[in-house]
Amino acid sequence: MSAFKTPQAIGHVRRLLMVGTLACAACLTWAYARIIAVHGINAAEVVALAAFFILALWVSLPFCSCLVGFWNMTRRGSKPRSTPLDELPQTAILVPIYNESPLAVFSAIAAMARSLERTGRHPRFEFFVLSDTQLEDVWRQEEAIWSETSALMPDGVPIYYRRRSKNHGRKAGNIADFVRRWGGRYELMIVLDADSVMEGETLVEMTARAAADETIGILQVPPKPVNRGSLLARILQFAADVYGPVYLAGYQSWTGSDGNYFGHNAVIRTAAFAKHCTLPVLPGAPPLGGHILSHDFVEAALIRRAGYQVVTADDLAGSYEECPTTLLDYAVRDQRWCQGNLQHSRLLAVRGLRPASRFHFLNGVLSYVSSVIWILFMVAMASGMLLERHLSGTKLTGAPALLFAVVFLMLLTPKFLSFLSLRSDPARASQLGGRVKVAMSMLLETGISILLAPVLAYYHASFVISATIFGRSVQWSTQSRDERVIPVRELVKLHLWQTLTGVAILAVSFAISPLTGLWCLPLSVGLMLSIPIAYALGSRSLGDWLRARGLLTIPEEIVRPEILRLRDAASEEISARLQATDRTDAIQNEADDDQLRTRQIDVLMPAVVSS
Predict the structure, then answer these.
(1) Cα gap 440→575, rounded to integer Å
(2) Contact 314/222 with Cβ under 8 angstroms?
(3) Running DSSP on this structure, what letter comes out for residue 82?
(4) Are 243 and 414 a contacting pair, CB within 8 Å?
(5) For 21, how many CA atoms within 13 A lie in the half-sphere containing its CB?
């Protein structure tokens, strides 16, 4: 929990953070202005200066936030006590799915149910699988595996299954349908994702905290990515484990009760959600109109507007998810998030929202628009130098080199602070393989991130431009959650334009001046190497090779958490039951038999409460 607990303390942190961010950005911009003003400033350089200031703000905010977070980590208070068993309310655990792997989903549910049973508080929880699956072969597998999983559930922990024939409103509509039809029975609901899994003790503790404070509308438990082996997945998992605590501590320091909702691994007060979180349908056509894709930020803003707290329980462990394993899958997910975040720009002026909620919206928009601003800065800077030619032949020395070094150090500061936090926590460092291996892993992760940054910027810029200028909307497709290998031919097709763009940037920038070329080098090299980068990031064998040498490892790989072991065991048990009963074949052969659907409705009926 944060050391800053009172509204007054959080207000002081916000003011300090705002002043620090503005001061850092102003100093960086002043230094850049001094560099380009040697022979006067032309129109292109004015544009570059404005873009630089926005980018400087973007760099300064996480820099200052992590400084506060690091200080906060040294002054944390103890976590609150749980409420007694008899005070825990009836809680629904929702698992919305859309064309997912049924075995993976139901194995996780069986594992969580068994983990809850070990706490002794399992009778207060009920699971709901809310299917929006449209593929017949998949939803028939869901029904078969649901039937087998029901037999494995502990006494007193039911698992209900409901499928919508039309997925109106996508995931947000799926959850809203549950709230409307059955939400009246449950004071609290825990929302999970299809790849989420949480320890029973964590589920109980988060429920207890929400039950103990009726002003809590949403309590978010940050999930840790685990269980994947490609190089990209290992980088994401390692970064979340090592850098995440410092970032989260900083985030906690200034958000307080104005936190955000990540869309899953959170407990929500059902009545407040039902009353205040009906999502608007934005006027106009997609991508900026229609149903809101990134519903979680909006729901957090609406429930906060109603006076409820949105808090982050960053001290709770045992909350897990899985991450993309290839650059393509990562980009596909980012494109959906990009469109959803761009829609938030239309909500910035909505009446009654808290300033922090508006900031969350703006921050989400800038997380993608900043790539466009970065490219604009590069183009404007190069154009200004081309017009003036006053830096032709100069080298990256003196003031330009110092400015570059300062910005680079600011970007690296959160990583350095994360390493310092490990030095003061030998046990955690040991779980990560020791400080030497952690340092080597951080250097490797940083190098890959530098090369990857322009590739992601290219993607983000193309997403923003295609949405805002060409009006191209994202289709709601099934996420690829499993390890897979993308053929080299497809990688060449996907990244050819990025490669050619990198070559063009390198040639043009050095033609303008050596200084321009050096400034653009990080951008051009990453783009030119986008094909081999994408291939390496998707490689499971490379990820396994690094793991064997203790690099980019996380504690969950050294000592596998009980909940993940329970999920593995449940997966094997369900598979064995399916094979023993030949259930899958039976379902396929009974396409016209509604026996299972009748059973499904019969099981759901006791939970139905009109609201």
Answers:
(1) 40
(2) yes
(3) P
(4) yes
(5) 19
**Rg (the chain; Cα; Å):** 25
**Gap between the Cα atoms of 220 and 259, Å rounded:** 8
For residue 288, give the amino acid letter. L
Prediction pTM value: 0.91
User: For residue range 325-347, what is the model confidence (pLDDT) as tens digits?
Assistant: 999 999 999 999 999 999 999 99
| Count of beta carbons in the 10 Å neighbourhood of residue 382 | 22
- Phi/psi of residue 294, each to 5°? -90, 80
Cis peptide before 287 (omega within 30 of 0): yes
CB atoms inside a 10 Å sphere around CB 393: 8
Amino acid identity of residue 323, one-letter, is: C
Which of 133-147, 420-434, 441-455 has the weakest average pLDDT?
420-434
Residue 287 in tokens: 């991508």
Least confident range of 50-54, 128-132, 471-475, 600-604: 600-604
Whether the Cβ atoms of residue 587 and residue 144 lie closer than 8 Å to each other:
yes
- What digits encode the pLDDT tens for the residues 258-296? 999 999 999 999 999 999 999 999 999 989 999 999 999
Question: Exposure string (b/e) for 29-58, b if CB count within 10 Å is 16 or more?
Answer: bebbbeebeeeeebebbebbbebbbbbbbb
> In this predicted structure, what is the pLDDT of residue 300?
98
Domain ranges of the chain: 90-186+562-600
Comparing C-alpha atoms, which of 238, 562, 242 is closest to residue 428? 242
Whether 159 contacts 112, CB under 8 Å = no
| Buried residues in 273-301 as b, exposed as e (16+ CB within 10 A) | bbebbeeeebeeebbbeebbbbbbbbbbb
Phi, psi dihedral angles at 439 (to 5 degrees): -60, -45
Best CA proximity match to 163, nearest among 133, 136, 126, 196: 133
Mean pLDDT, range 345-370, rounded to an integer: 96
CA–CA separation, 591 vs 589, rounded Å? 6
